Amino acid sequence: MTTSSWRNWAGTETAEPTRTLRPGDVEEVAAAVTAAAEDGLRVKAVGSSHSFSGIAAPDGVQLDMGALDEVVRVDSKSNQVTVGAGMPLWRLNQVLDAHGLALENMGDIDRQTVSGAISTGTHGTGDRYRGLSWQVQALQLVLADGSTVHCSPTERSELFKAARLGLGALGVITEVTIQATPAFKLQAVERPMRLDAVLEGLDELVAENDHFEFYWFPHTDRTLTKRNNRYSMQEKRRRPTRLSYWWNEGFTENTLFEASNRLGARFPGAVPRLNRVAGRVWSARDYTDISHKVFASPRRVVFREMEYAVPREALPEVLTELKTTVDERGFNVSFPVEIRFAAADEIWLSTAYGRRTAYVAVHQYHRHPHEEYFEAAAEIFDAVKGRPHWGKMHWLDAKQLADRYDRFEDFLTVRDKTDPDRRFANPYLERVLGP
Ligand SMILES: Cc1cc2nc3c(=O)[nH]c(=O)nc-3n(C[C@H](O)[C@H](O)[C@H](O)COP(=O)(O)OP(=O)(O)OC[C@H]3O[C@@H](n4cnc5c(N)ncnc54)[C@H](O)[C@@H]3O)c2cc1C
């Protein structure tokens, strides 16, 4: 046991847990939960602390899930893989590679733990694809009373529906069974385009590419579009050279981007010009690689982020309004706005529940003020009943969120049953789910 301060990746949240434990197996998790109850302390399982919101902030017992990172089972008939909840996604990808398998879709990075990623609804892009929680087939959890349970669509199905995207509110997840797919390659085509041309051709761009997304550079009408399409492992396509990898992901997207942001922080008036340069330097390129090497890349420039899921059909109106607001209100925004897509799903607290979705993510460099820009963006997203990413910054509370999720009450019912004393609550959960 140790006592140490906790802070998230972006430095937006800090906490002073009473004690920190690193359980090595499910019995140690159960013992930690029981002992916390005896001491009247709350418990928070913490993954890689990559959430921008206070969702992972521990105030009683912090459970560092990092030691629960073993492969439990690989079923080569069903392609289902069961792993310890604390396994980071980059390691899960190595395990899947070794079995000729892959995650169906991923977000931008692979540093998160499996349980942290599913608990906040982590997603990538693709009009026909859904977030990581959609791939969850079964869970093992330690509940507030110290018991260990399994859940799946056929076993404790109500708990499963809630806990596959459970905000850490229902118990400590110890094992996750994921549906993987046969390994595949992605061909990436990155092209600059004018924003109005992207919006005009949006239906085709989204429909004709497996994983389409784009970055819009505020203060300009420039975007960088990314079209990733799936190919079998046998097809031969061009891999990025070491030099092109270094130039784009190492140098342009990290080193040069950090320098440009530092300059923008010192001279805010230069931000529009810097963005125009960034829009040119992040240039066209084509390459093909194993899926996870294309989906995920390193993120070394520290930023703040708010992301909302908006109804897909509202996207053009939302972006047009965001562009007008940034220009009229004189915000200096040095980070591109990222736009991604997802199919509707049926997970109770999924941001894509019941509707085709576009994700709009606003970012700001950590040395730039973000509050006014994010608040103005939130107003635009709220007007179309947007749903904020649970792991990113936002200001909504339980009353507002209940109105945006059809199954919110069902989730609260499961919470009342499994955690009546709110052993797994923290200030963020009190705000977004209620006391
Ligand atoms: C640079 C960067 C890039 C990102 N890119 C994307 C992206 O492309 N797409 C996207 O959707 N999100 C993205 N995110 C957000 C990130 O995926 C989520 O915030 C994710 O939850 C972080 O995982 P984690 O392991 O760090 O979890 P943490 O932040 O540590 O925890 C998140 C939640 O999970 C709970 N939790 C963790 N482990 C357990 C467990 N074993 N049992 C029960 N609850 C648990 C915690 O209590 C907390 O509620 C990004 C974040 C960063 C910093």
Summarize the structure.
It contains 14 helices and 20 strands. It is α+β, with helices and mostly antiparallel strands. It starts with 5 loop residues before the first strand and ends with a helix.
Explain how this protein is built.
A hairpin with a 6-residue loop joins strand 1 (6-7) and strand 2. The chain is α+β, with helices and mostly antiparallel strands. Helix content is 33%, strand content 25%. It has 14 helices and 20 strands. It has two domains: 65-182, Uridine Diphospho-n-acetylenolpyruvylglucosamine Reductase, domain 3 (2-Layer Sandwich), CATH 3.30.465.10; 184-388, Vanillyl-alcohol Oxidase, Chain A, domain 3 (3-Layer(aba) Sandwich). The strands form five sheets. The protein has an eight-stranded antiparallel beta sheet, sandwiched between helices. It is globular, with a radius of gyration of 21 Å. The two termini are 29 Å apart. Flavin-adenine dinucleotide (FAD) binds next to strand 4, helix 3 and strand 11.
From the 3D structure, determine the CATH topology of the largest domain.
Vanillyl-alcohol Oxidase, Chain A, domain 3
* Termini Cα gap: 29 Å
Count of beta strands: 20
Domain unit count: 2
| Main β sheet profile | 8 strands, antiparallel
